[in-house]
Structures are given as structure tokens and as C-alpha cells.
Amino acid sequence: VSLPDEPLARRVVEGDVRALARVCRLVDDRIGGYRTILKQLFPHTGHAWTLGVTGTPGAGKSTLTDRLIAALRAQNQRVAVLAIDPTSPFTGGAILGDRIRMQRHHGDPEVFIRSVATRGALGGLSRSAVDLLRVLDAWRADVVICETVGVGQDELEVTRSVHTTLVVMAPGMGDDVQAIKAGILECADVFAVNKADREGAHATVRDLELMIALGHTTRSVRTATPGVGHVGAHAALATHPSDDDAHWTPPIVKCVATRDEGTAELMTKLEDHKRWLFETEAGSERRFQRLRDSMRAQLRQELLEDAERHMGAAIDEAVRAVAERRLDPYTAAEDLIARFQQS
Amino acid sequence: VSLPDEPLARRVVEGDVRALARVCRLVDDRIGGYRTILKQLFPHTGHAWTLGVTGTPGAGKSTLTDRLIAALRAQNQRVAVLAIDPTSPFTGGAILGDRIRMQRHHGDPEVFIRSVATRGALGGLSRSAVDLLRVLDAWRADVVICETVGVGQDELEVTRSVHTTLVVMAPGMGDDVQAIKAGILECADVFAVNKADREGAHATVRDLELMIALGHTTRSVRTATPGVGHVGAHAALATHPSDDDAHWTPPIVKCVATRDEGTAELMTKLEDHKRWLFETEAGSERRFQRLRDSMRAQLRQELLEDAERHMGAAIDEAVRAVAERRLDPYTAAEDLIARFQQS
């Protein structure tokens, strides 16, 4: 593939960090010919292994991410991190201190860290994040880590677009938090039970094992036949991935990130998943499936933006008619869509 | 407004509970002429006061909702409850026990309780929920309570479509949970600090007061000038709504829902907000704004569904081209949208 014509895109592909930072800013703000840059960078993507780190708030994701960065740097890999902060749609300010915690990699030219803020409506977060993951890939990062808080549709969408998803949990987060986890669990490729020195760690591991055994994860649900699922469940109970290449059973690794315990084993399990993903037929199918999901999401975003641009004023008129109950909102929507299609 | 032609819609408007249950099922499953029914019910909506109850998991929303139902029944009001359960997009099964907890209202013909499950993608939850709120309104409920877990874009969207939003918090949920709260807080019209007999309740109240004083809620941000905002902040510190009709400052009420403490005061504050909403000019503007937001959301949903129907096969082709890097996803999306517009 030939180098991009666009100067900034070219410099990113050549590994220039300052150009990378600038392109990230343009993409995040959706200004300055960012779209041309994205188009030109795309043929240069496909090099990086993308790793999502998600989980319940307070589980210690940032500390663990920090450990993973250090482990990858020890292997001399180039690492890029995208940290997604939950923020107010109004103030636009970041709340978490992820960036601060990861400062110790500052000055390492082979580590690039970038935060994105949650956008207000329309799933803008997931779109920006997916675009940024591609930019970081084109910069020739070996590993792109995407850290999300793991709540919300948007973040689930980002999680679905990475190769390998690590779900971080901590003991004793309470029963109701189980509810939040539902969406995250189904994206899990590897589980880390962090703060494993705390009371309740064993119970958390057991709960996860049970859930995996019952097939409450995407992996087993999607690819296992009932018989194979049962074998997979036993494999899961031993916290080893299944020997059966046709499906992946998420292993569970206990860690104490603050003391760097369990990082090596965790890294091994993550790399096992990478191998499965890139070296088996089932893994290849999974990657195609994820690309499709990601593209559908992108398509939806762009369609909505186009439509809002075209229908702006007409929407306000329709709202007024509905507010006065001269029109019902269902008929109003049908009329507006028909108008957009003819525009 | 004349009665609906459609027999089920007619029976709902006449107050028939069995017809109501059936229509809810049709709307939730999006089958059986549900759209005609929704269109015919719409002119009969506008009677109910819709009340959202949301907040961090474990804060005791269901118990408090139960108390509010009892208080409203004591005033002889007809109450409908829509409980939104976070569920797996795959299993479709409910996790929380809301329905069980509210069983004690079972048998009261003036209380109707319905659960909806979270839908997988595309914000299907918010759309179903908003439709169901309208159905419950058309049944002539005096109050429609919508209980959500309060995490996720979808649920935020539901929250934005109700008249009055009660945000329930509990002491000691940890710092990181603050992050999740960001989205919820901005929707708050009234705060309940539940489990107020626990350690840390005072600190939670103080945190909220500070946040309100700093203008971190939609209400003050949207309508206050800097000077007025300052006055509002002081009013908030005294946990009274501002005397200034032009904007609403969310009051904070301490409760112990399990012992039914604070329910009466909470009810008063909620009714204060209702009065502000329906009897002031600023309130009227707010209602129009919310209808617009809600309609825009509906429009987006319908557009996406139409587009998916039209582009189905073409999307798969495009995904293949992108997977092989013959095409970039940005150009692919542009082509697909152009094709949909010409269909």
C-alpha cells in the first residue's frame, strides 16, 4: 500500500507522534479534513492488536492498564492507549483521573495516551473512539488499549469493536451491580478479578465460573452446541481456555494490580486469546462479525447526522403540531423520513 | 376528541385493564397493528403526570417507588408503573426483582405495573418505553411512574421524556460511582438521599448541595443567568426550590424508604415540581423542549429501522470489501446512505 498523499496522514503512518496527536484532536473534534485523513489512513490499519479494558467502576481498571502497559513495554511493543472518560454532556469536563495515573509513561516515545470525552447524544462517543482506534493502529502501534468504564450502550459498542476484551471486576461490589455487569459480561474474552487479596475474591471467581458454565457469555452462547458448551463449562471451571478451537471460553485470572501480582498470567491469557482470534477459523469468523457490527454502527451514525442536517426545520414544525395534538408522533415521523428520502 | 375506532385502543381509553395489558404486550413486541393503536391512542394522552425514578444501583429505588405508589393511592390517584430491567441482550431475562417487590399492589385495580426488558441494540428500549408511557397515559392514569436503573444512554433518554425526574441516591456508594452519576444528575428535578440513617448520608447531601451550587444540573445550566444561578445555589443549600419561577433548583429530601420515613416530604417536593412545570412559563418551555427531544429520538429510531430494512444485503457486501481493505469504511458509509436516499 502506498503512503497517503495527505501530509498529516503520511506523517502518522511514518510514526510521527506530534502528527498523531494533531490528527487525534482533529478526529475528536471532527474538523479540519479529518474525514479525508481517516480515509487515507484506513489502508494502513490492520497491524495492531486492539485490547479493550472494561469493568465495573472502582474495580481498578486504570491501575491494571498501567501494569499491562509496563508488561508490553518490557516486550518492546509500541503501545497506544485510548481512555474514555464519562463526562457531563453539558460541561464536557473529564471526571476520572486516568490520565494522571498513567503519567509515569510520559516521556516514553513508544507509549501514546489519549483521552476522549463522552459525547452528548447520538452515540458520538463510540464513533469518535472507533475512528481514533483506527488512527492509533495506522501509527503502527503493536497494541492499542481502549479503557472504558463499561456502562452504557456507547461504551458497549466500543468494546464490541476491539479484538480482545478484558473485563476487570473486584470482590464485594454488591448485588445490584450485577445488573450493570450484564452487558459487559457478554463481551468478555478474559476476566481479571482484581483486588484478589480482599475478602470475597473467591466468591467473585465462583460467581463468574458459574455464569460462564451457564453460558451467560457471548462466546459460549454464540458458538457452542449444547454438548460442547458443557465441556467448555468444565474447562472454564478450571480457569483454562477450552481446548476446542471452535469456541473460546473466557479464562479468569486473579490479580492485585497495586502490587503487580497476576499481571504476567493475565498477559499470557490475553495473548492466548489473540492467537485464537488470528490463528483459528472460528477466530477469523469472530473478527469478521465484529467488523460488521462496527461498520453497521458507523453507518447508523452517519445516516443520523445526514438526516438531522436535512430535516432540521421540519422537525420543529412537526414537534409543534404534536405538542398541540394536531398530529400524532408516529405519522409525523413517517412524513419526515419520506421527506428526507426525497431530498 | 372522539373515541378510537380500533377496538383495543377504545377499550384502553375506557379504562379496561385487560385491554391495557394486551396493548402493552403488542407495543413491547411491536406486533399486531401496534402502530395503528399508538396513533389512535395519542390524541387521548396528556392527562398523566409522568414521574421518572432513577439512580445508582442499590440506592433503593424500588422500595421508594413502592412507598410513592402507596402515597398516591392514599390520594385516590390511578397509578401506572413501568419498571425497566437491565437484562442481557442475549438471554432477554430480567435480573432485578422489582416486580416481586411491588406485588403488594397486586389486586388493586387502580395500580397497573408493567416491566420492560432492555433491548439489544439501536436504543429499542427507549422507544418501547416512551410508547408504553403514552399507552399508560391514554389509560387515564393520573400518575405514570417510570423506574430505571439510570445507567446508559437509552435510560437517560427515557428519563428525559418524563415530566419530573426523581434521582435516588444512597450514602457511601464510592467515588468511582460518581462517574456514572454524571448523566443522571443532569436530569434531576428532585433528589432523594435514601438510607439516610446510614453513615455518610450527611456527606452525600453536602456533595449534592455543592454540585447544585456549582450548577452541575441541567436546570440551572440551561435557564440561569450567572447572577440568578448564584441565588439558586443558596436556595439549594437550604434544600428549598428557588422562589424564582424562571428556573427550578432541585430540592434534596432525606428518606428511609424501608421505614417509610420522608415519603410525605418527598411527595410534596415532587408535586411542587409538577406545579412549576404546568403553571409557569419556564415550565411550559421545559415541557416543549422535552417533547422535542423525545420526538427527535423517535425519529432517529424509525429512520434507522427503515434504513436497515433497505440496505441489509448491501451492507454485507460493503463489510466484505472493507474487511479486505478494498474499500474504506467512510466511503462505504457514504455510498450506502446515497443508495438508501434513492430507494
Task: Give your account of this protein's structure.
- Chain A is α/β, with parallel strands linked by helices and 343 residues long.
- Chain A contains 14 helices and seven strands.
- In chain A, strands 3-2-4-1-5-6-7 form a seven-stranded parallel sheet, with helices on both faces.
- In chain A, helix 5 links the parallel strand 2 and strand 3.
- The longest helix of chain A has 43 residues.
- The two termini of chain A are 37 Å apart.
- About 12% of the residues of chain A have low confidence.
- At the A-B interface, helix 3, helix 8, helix 13 and helix 14 of A face helix 3, helix 8, helix 13 and helix 14 of B.
Can I get a quick summary?
The first copy, chain A, is built from 14 helices and 7 strands. Chain A has 343 residues and is an alpha/beta fold. In chain A, helix 5 (98-101) links the parallel strand 2 and strand 3.
SSE order of chain A: HHHEHEHEHEHEHEHHHEHHH
Radius of gyration computed on alpha carbons of chain A? 22 Å
Distance between the termini of chain A: 37 Å
Determine the mean pLDDT of chain A: 80
Report the strand count of chain A: 7
Please describe the biggest sheet of chain A, giving its number of strands, its sense, and whether it closes into a barrel. 7 strands, parallel
**How much of the polypeptide of chain A forms β-strand, as a percent range?**
5-15%
**Structural class computed from helices and strand pairing of chain A:** alpha/beta
Overall 3D geometry of chain A? globular
**What is the tally of helical segments of chain A?**
14
Which consecutive residue ranges of chain A, at least 5 long each, have pLDDT under 50? 87-101, 218-242
Biggest interface, chains and residues, is: A-B, 75 and 75 residues
How are strands sequenced across the largest beta sheet of chain A?
Answer: 3-2-4-1-5-6-7
Q: Quaternary arrangement of the chains shown?
A: homodimer
Helicity level of chain A, as a percent range? 40-55%
